[in-house]
Amino acid sequence: MAVTTLKRKLRRKRQAQNARVLKIKQLNAKPVIKNVDIEAIKKEFSEK
Length: 48
Description:
This protein is mainly alpha-helical. It has helices at 7-28, 38-47. The protein contains 2 helices and no strands. The N and C termini lie far apart (82 Å).
């Protein structure tokens, strides 16, 4: 009895796995925290 591999199904399964991993990585990624001078921004608005 020969064993055949379902290549198309395997490729779809791997695609789904990789997409899931990417989605989890994107959800866990934290944005870069920039040092923002709040006082300078407030002064800029009060000048206008």
